[in-house]
Each structure stands twice: as C-alpha cells, then as structure tokens.
Amino acid sequence: MFYRLLADAVLLAHLAFILFVVFGALLVLRRRRLMPLHLLAVAWGIGIELLGAVCPLTYAENRMRLLAGDAGYSGGFVEHYVVALIYPGELTRGMQLGLAAGVLLVNAGLYGWMLRRRFP
Predict the structure, then answer these.
(1) DSSP labels, 22-67
(2) Is the overall model pTM greater than 0.70, yes or no?
C-alpha cells in the first residue's frame, strides 16, 4: 500500500511538472522570480523529448509500482499516460518531436505576449 501511494505521488508530481513546463509562463506573469526555474523546466522538457529519453520520474514511479506488486510500464510518462489519452497506440519519434515543438511554441508565444505587454 505504501509503495502504491508513493507511485501515485510520483505520478502526480510528474503531471504537475509537465503542466508547469507547458503552462508555467502563466505563473511567471504573477511571479517573475519563477522565470529562471520555468525556463530550466522548459529546457528539460524539450530536451527529454528531442533526445527521445525517459524522464527519471518515470523510472521512480515504475520502481514504486514494482515494489507495490504492480506491473511497471515501458516507455515514458507522456507515452503511457498523456499520449494514451490523446492518441491510441504507441508514441512515435515524430510525435515526440511534435510534443517538443508544441512546448516550445506555447512557451515562445506566452513569453512573447508577456514581452509585448511589458514593452509596448
């Protein structure tokens, strides 16, 4: 039971991190001090997708699930949870590159909008 709760906590933390990567610029509007942290998170998120790597949080969640007696899963968090909701089937390299481009475009748009508001 304990490891299952830990796995779920890692899952929620992972989801929160992904939401921060994609939409954190909206938080930066309110708290400018978050900008360096958000830009690092964006770089990490884009880097993971461009490299085709698996986030360490995925390994941590899988380990907790195995210790709880559950089966882990192959691939990454995005492939297992997020993409499974949006696209049936497996995550392809093209989809990973598309996700990286999407994160970059969303954040470039949000930061561009903030700059235009600040320096009209």
Answers:
(1) HHHHHHHHH-GGGHHHHHHHHHHHHHHHHHT---HHHHHHHHHHHH
(2) yes
C-alpha torsion angle, residues 103, 104, 105, 107 (rounded to 10): 80
Could you read off the pLDDT of 57-85 as tens digits, one per residue?
Answer: 888 888 888 898 877 666 666 566 665 65
The residue whose two tokens read 């490891």 is: 3
Domain range list for the chain: 2-118
Q: What is the pLDDT of residues 17-43, one digit of tens each?
A: 989 999 999 999 889 899 999 999 999
- Cα dihedral 86, 84, 88, 56 in deg (nearest 10): 120
| 63 vs 4: CA distance, rounded Å | 10
